[in-house]
Amino acid sequence: MEPRIPELGRFAEPALLILVSLSDEPKHGYAIMADVEAGTGRPLGPGTLYAALARLEERGLIEALMPVERRRPYRLTAIGASVLADQLRELADFADLGLSRLGRAQP
Amino acid sequence: MIGLLLRCYPAAWRARYADEFTALLEQRPLGPFDVADVLLGAVDAHLHLRGHGAASEHRKGFAMSLRIGGYAAIAGGMLWFVSIAVGSAMSSGGGDSSIWFLAFAAASVLLLVALVGLSAFQARRNPRLVWAAFAIPAGGAIIATLGVFGMLTVGDAPFIGLASPWNVWIIGLMAMILGSSLFGIATVRTGSLSRAGAILLVLGAFAVLPALGGMTGAIANPQLGIIFTAMPFLAFAGGWIWLGASALRFGSPTTTLQGAM
Asked: Is B134 near chain A, with CB under 8 Å?
């Protein structure tokens, strides 16, 4: 059974942001932080980043590559891509539901 | 500052993430948010490790490697010191020390097992250093065992070329000790296991030359010779025992980090 992002508890949101960041190419920690901040406008702290990275790696959703000058890139695994796609679809459905309700409620 | 923050994390976490995490923190100035976030991350790392119940096969293998290495380091360190101390004393007193030299060979094998078992942390970070730390003592153990074999068979007669079995044994012994010091250095660099134990191992290894002087009679005063001989060898063996004990603590189910290697 594939792991689910919500099982990561309070790290579910950072984990989702990290997976999205890694969805186009492998990135090291600093690049992930910069990418998340650019995409969401909110900083991702280094402690939170590595707590989430450790959990994602344990669950096989991402994997570490060989370090380059002490900076270790991470990439999405096949399972990670599948879990991310499922999660984004669920979020999209939820967003559609919310928007449609808002549309009906508005005068 | 970064070093202090890193010290807040568990050793298992540091062994796996310290390098890249340090590189990340060095890439931009740390603000109060970052420091608070890192401190919370350290608390989380401690709690996460403690509550980590589901062991993967990889983790089991890693813990097993640490346990075997830990027990081998403790047994090897004790047997190594006792066999050298008693063997040398009996040898200088004219008694039959052959059993103690065989015990030394067994201790050498145990320390090699310890080297392999405990090098899991260092293998990825310092592959060349770790390989040297294994190859040099392994070669030394073979040479020293040959020396033991020579002492039991030809006594003081030339054994390999002009070298007596005693000389061959001493050369093997030096290789073992100096190679082990490389392992100690790798342990200090990675911050894995006990740094104090690793430093003791390295100090013991570097102090071995005057100790060998004591063993070969180069130091005129016999009492000084015994002190110069015993202290570094005791430090060396103590370093191994200390590292072994820290590996056993580390390998216990409540403290092992999955993917720590």
From this structure: no
A39 and A18 Cβ atoms separated by less than 8 Å: no
Half-sphere exposure for B11 (CA within 13 Å, toward CB): 18
The ipTM of this complex is 0.81
Between residues B82 and B62, the one the model is more confident about: B82
Farthest-apart Cα atoms in chain B, separation = 72
Contact assignment for A47 to B23 by CB distance below 8 Å: no
User: A30-64 as b/e, with b when 16 or more CB fall inside 10 Å?
Assistant: bbbbbbbeeeeeebbbbbbbbbbbbbbbbbebbbb
Taking the C-alpha atoms of residue A70 and residue A66, their distance in angstroms, rounded to an integer, is 9
Alpha helices in B27-97 (DSSP H): 32-50, 57-92
Q: What is the pLDDT of residues B86-99, one digit of tens each?
A: 877 776 677 777 78
Output the 3-class SS for B84-134: HHHHHHHHHCCCCCHHHHHHHHHHHHHHHHHHHHHCHHHHHHCHHHHHHHH
Q: Residue type for B80, please?
A: W
Tell me whether A39 touches chain B (CB under 8 Å): no
Question: Which residues partner with A64 through β-bridges?
Answer: A74
pTM attached to this predicted model:
0.51
Q: Taking a C-beta distance cutoff of 8 angstroms, is the pair B20, A70 a contact?
A: yes
Q: Tell me whether A70 touches chain B (CB under 8 Å).
A: yes
* CA atoms of B251 and B12, how far apart (whole Å): 10
pLDDT confidence of B255, banded at 50, 70, 90? very low
